[in-house]
Write a structure and sequence with these properties.
The chain is of the alpha+beta class. It has helices at residues 3-9, 34-41, 44-47, 58-68, 118-134, 148-156; strands at residues 19-20, 24-28, 75-81, 87-95, 102-109, 138-144, 160-168, 175-184. It has an 8-stranded mixed sheet, sandwiched between helices. The radius of gyration is 16 Å and the shape is globular.
């Protein structure tokens, strides 16, 4: 049995709860989601400003899922449409590496579902969960300067521009000028 077959057989016990919005179900992402996740993880338009490399096959997606599932610091969700159970994206929220009192979040949505408010809807729900369930008051997020649509999502979630920064791909081959945002809740 190869590693991919073993990953498919693993039963994950996650503490990530299932959440709902008006149009979405945010549920724990699992190895069974590899084919659906491959749609956006292999899309050059979605990947353009992401720190990860473009995924070439579902085996790579399974390995990614296997890495994020045991991640105890963050909550990871798949974003599923209520109307047809189609998985259209994913996101996570958890303590920021630089300051654990602040929580950072991120999201990916299939490009054929862009500009429909799904990223905003999911991000608002993740923030609400962290605030209500964990008492988190401070949130941070950033986006590539050349990806203003992601900045609009952050603004719609109540975050305000704080400063210019930069980030690079995980392999260090590309750098992006970025805008960082912050939100404080009472």
């Amino acid at each position: 049995m190869n590693i991919i077959q073993k990953i498919k057989q693993i039963k994950y016990i996650k503490t990530t709860p299932t959440l709902q919005t008006e149009r979405l179900i945010l549920r724990p992402i699992t190895p069974k989601d590899a084919d659906a996740a491959f749609v956006w993880l292999s899309d050059e338009k979605v990947n353009k400003f992401m720190p990860y490399n473009l995924y070439k096959n579902t085996d790579e997606v399974l390995l990614w899922i296997n890495v994020i599932l045991p991640d105890s610091d963050k909550y990871h969700w798949g974003f599923m449409l209520k109307e047809n159970n189609l998985l259209i994206g994913s996101g996570s929220i958890g303590p920021d590496k630089g300051n654990p009192d602040e929580w950072g979040f991120g999201y990916n949505i299939r490009s054929d579902y862009w500009n429909k408010g799904f990223a905003t809807e999911a991000a608002k729900r993740m923030i609400e969960f962290a605030h209500k369930e964990h008492g988190i008051k401070d949130f941070v997020a950033s986006h590539a300067v050349d990806n203003p649509a992601s900045g609009r999502v952050m603004e719609k979630c109540g975050l305000t521009f704080e400063r210019y920064t930069e980030y690079s791909t995980f392999d260090g081959k590309e750098k992006f000028k970025a805008k960082s945002y912050k939100l404080h809740l009472e």
